[in-house]
Amino acid sequence: MNMKKTVSILAATAMCASMAAASASAADFPGNKAITIVCPYAAGGASDTTSRIFASEFEKAIGTTVMVQNTTGASGAIGLETVRSSKPDGYTIAYMPVESTMLSSLGYTDLTTDDFRFIGRAMTIPAAITVNADSEWETFEDFIDYAKEHPGEVRVGNSGTGSIWQVAAASVEEKCGVEFNHVPFSDGAASAVTALLGNNIEAVAVSPSEVYTNVEAGDLRTLMVMGEERSSVLPDVPTAKELGYDITVQGWGGFAVPKDTPDDVVEVLEAAAETAINSDAMKELLASKGYEHAYLSGADMDKKASEELAYYSELIPTMGIVME
Question: Is the peptide bond before 126 cis (omega within 30 degrees of 0)?
Fold first, then answer.
């Protein structure tokens, strides 16, 4: 037999074998093998709560055991690295927070969202600017006008150095041409809100879910939210875009696998994730926590994460953040 013909036959045989293997992987996945969702933060927080209700609904949709494993450290980088370095077979899934687009710029890791493929986004938590109800600022425009006239004087609290809420305030600075005095509270947003109530700072950049009880009580006033849409817990507050400012900064939570995971396996995971995220149980839990149900497909979330990665990679180095 001639060499060319032999090579052609071998190539065809290899191609058929490859196609058969790919078909088999979809047919066999997930089988009876358990799937692990790695949550990069401790039990009890928003990420863990979202991961666990998702796991419960995802297990029903995909037909095998699904477990949540909390692997913490380095602002989430250690848990995400566990997934990035895992076998790309669909059995190890990461809970992906918005911080996954920021960790490389903050110097924690070289890991980025480009190392993963999303199978879906579950929720968003928008940033918001909130002030005391008895302050002179009735509107966001009032607040910005004052900040322009008093550069560096307005103290804006956030939930910690390098947090998404500090980045939110920095985005307002960049888009509105103002300068704030950032005041990070390392023990979280609740301490920042307490400081605002005590008139120790002039504003906070945190989520509506972290201030709405004080807003409803008449103690605080939220001037603007930075979500894609108005907040479900503060529906009367306009978004930045409604006010003419191109600012969208929000926490979000999704789920992703290593980027080399086979397409057919990803398709199975995406279908189950869509069912889980859009379940009544998931929607009810998110609503009870003040989070926004915000399903996005894997492909749409890949695109959004890539855009945010590019934006934060430019913004964060200009903020002068020194990580401890």
Answer: no
pLDDT in tens, 215-224: 999 999 999 9
User: d(Cα 121, Cα 307) in Å, to the nearest integer?
Assistant: 15
- Residue 68 amino acid letter: V
Round to whole Å and give the CA distance between 136 and 169: 20
Q: What are phi and psi of 186, to 5 degrees?
A: -65, -20
The tokens describing 304, both together, are: 């959004």
DSSP, collapsed to helix, strand or coil, labels residue 158 as strand
CA distances from 190 to 204, 225, 227, 278 (A): 10, 18, 20, 30
The whole-chain average pLDDT of the chain stands at: 90
User: What tokens were used for 22?
Assistant: 């790919």
Q: What are phi and psi of 87, to 5 degrees?
A: -65, 130
Sheet holding 92-97, edge to edge: 66-70, 35-39, 92-97, 250-258, 116-126, 292-296
Q: What's the pLDDT tens digit per position in 235-280?
A: 999 999 999 999 999 999 999 999 999 999 999 999 999 999 999 9
H helices of the chain, in order, are 3-28, 46-62, 77-84, 140-149, 164-176, 189-197, 212-216, 263-277, 280-289, 298-315
H or E stretch including 221?
strand 220-225
Contact in structure between 167 and 161 (CB atoms under 8 Å): no
Rounded Cα gap, residues 62 and 148, in angstroms: 53
Cα angle 118, 119, 124 (rounded to 5 degrees) comes to 75
pLDDT higher than 90, residue 22: no
User: Letter for the amino acid at 202?
Assistant: E
For residue 190, how many other CB atoms are within 10 A of its CB? 12
Contacts of residue 183, defined as CB under 8 A and 6 or more positions apart, other chains included, come to 155, 156, 157, 158, 192, 195, 201
Q: How many CB atoms neighbour CB 283 within 10 A?
A: 16
pTM above 0.90, yes or no: no
